[in-house]
Write a structure and sequence with these properties.
By secondary structure, this protein is mostly helical. The chain has 13 helices and no strands. The chain folds into two domains: 1-36; 52-294, Orthogonal Bundle (MetI-like fold), CATH 1.10.3720.10. The radius of gyration is 24 Å and the shape is globular.
């Protein structure tokens, strides 16, 4: 009887959260799926069934193809840079004895601000203006005589989205550093010492001992950063507004739904974004479940 009461109280305690998730997450996902198969254009709902027509038209839309290209470029560069810089910072901090806490806080500080704040700051830093209107990094390069570094930044044709990676990495590499640092410091010191005794140098110890043990950390970082990159919105809008050259699915979904009142297409874009995020997250869940089963 005591066990049944505990179980009942546990169910009652978590039931509000379960109900809220069921309604506001899965319920709205189901409603969005329904809208994506409808002909809803305009303020008045229209649930006329059109099948896969919205999806077919979307993948023949040149703007959406630009969105997919920009997302791919941003995701690849963002993940690579965050993982590399995060790991390097973690290795440096692991070796630092004096001032390690200060540097850790400095590297983590960008995470305390939102992407909107980051975008506003970097919009000034990456001001592409020249001449008397030059400011930010371009002005710094000009004063230092490094004219070859002066750039159009995010207004560069075709590759402007690559420069948006810079502020994104500035904000998120500290998070990756924290993940890697916790992973490195959790590795028993005896393993490194045993490798040294067996004749392994520092590079070999890192390659064969530390790096393999950090694989779960890397996977977690890829999942979190990949999820962030696939739904990036506020950083781009804060830096460049709704520039079509830097367009991504989230911006397209916003303008389609709330500027053009084409809710069917907006829901279609949202469902495609959900599927891409699921493709990234599901392997992580499978990997985690498999490891728990083996333990």
């Amino acid at each position: 009887m005591h066990i049944n009461k505990d179980r009942l109280f546990s169910i009652l305690f978590i039931s509000p959260s379960i109900l809220a998730i069921a309604i506001f997450v899965y319920g709205f996902i189901g409603w969005s799926v329904k809208v994506s198969f409808s002909a809803w254009q305009g303020l008045l709902p229209d649930y006329t069934w059109v099948g896969l027509e919205n999806y077919t038209e979307l993948f023949h839309d040149r703007r959406f193809m630009i969105d997919l290209r920009n997302t791919a470029i941003f995701t690849v560069l963002f993940l690579a840079a965050c993982l590399i810089f995060g790991l390097l910072l973690a290795l440096l901090l692991d070796r630092t004895r004096k001032g390690a806490n200060i540097f850790r806080n400095i590297f983590l500080f960008p995470m305390a601000v939102s992407f909107i704040v980051t975008g506003v700051a970097w919009r000034w830093l990456m001001n592409p203006a020249t001449g008397t209107r030059m400011s930010g990094l371009n002005l710094l390069f000009d004063r230092l005589g490094l004219d070859f570094l002066i750039s159009n930044w995010h207004t560069t044709p075709d590759w402007g989205i690559a420069f948006i990676v810079i502020p994104a990495v500035w904000q998120m590499s500290g998070f990756t550093m924290a993940l890697y640092l916790s992973g490195i410091q959790s590795i028993p010191l005896e393993l490194r010492e045993a490798a040294m005794v067996d004749g392994a140098n520092e590079l070999q110890t890192f390659r064969h001992i530390i790096l393999p043990l950090l694989r779960p950390i890397t996977l977690s970082a890829v999942i979190i950063l990949g999820h962030t990159s696939l739904k990036i919105f506020d950083l781009i809008v804060a830096i460049s507004g709704k520039d079509i050259r830097l367009d991504v699915p989230a911006i397209y979904m916003w303008t389609t739904s709330f500027d053009a009142n084409n809710f069917a297409r907006g829901a279609t874009i949202g469902i495609i974004m959900l599927i891409t995020v699921a493709i990234v997250i599901v392997p992580y869940l499978v990997f985690g479940t498999r490891e728990e089963t083996e333990l």
